[in-house]
């Protein structure tokens, strides 16, 4: 249930401010965030579409340090 609630909040943030929703899902230093930021600067609708795609279809990558 908590995962569903978080997803709904991410989608709501993606509609209101697209880079914020992507930041919550993937972090603020990810490639997805910067692409969304550029698309939102160029046009609000492309930023929203990309943010929704990233939140719903792309799984966050877990980076592990191999020692």
From TrEMBL:
The keyword Transmembrane applies. The keyword Membrane applies. Residues 1-23 form the signal peptide. GO terms for cellular component: membrane. Pfam families: Pmp3. Keywords: Membrane, Signal, Transmembrane, Transmembrane helix. InterPro entries: PMP3. The chain crosses the membrane at residues 33-56. It is found in: Membrane. PANTHER family: HYDROPHOBIC PROTEIN RCI2 LOW TEMPERATURE AND SALT RESPONSIVE PROTEIN LTI6 -RELATED, LOW TEMPERATURE AND SALT RESPONSIVE PROTEIN FAMILY. Belongs to the UPF0057 (PMP3) family. This is (wild Malaysian banana) hypothetical protein. It comes from Musa acuminata subsp. malaccensis.
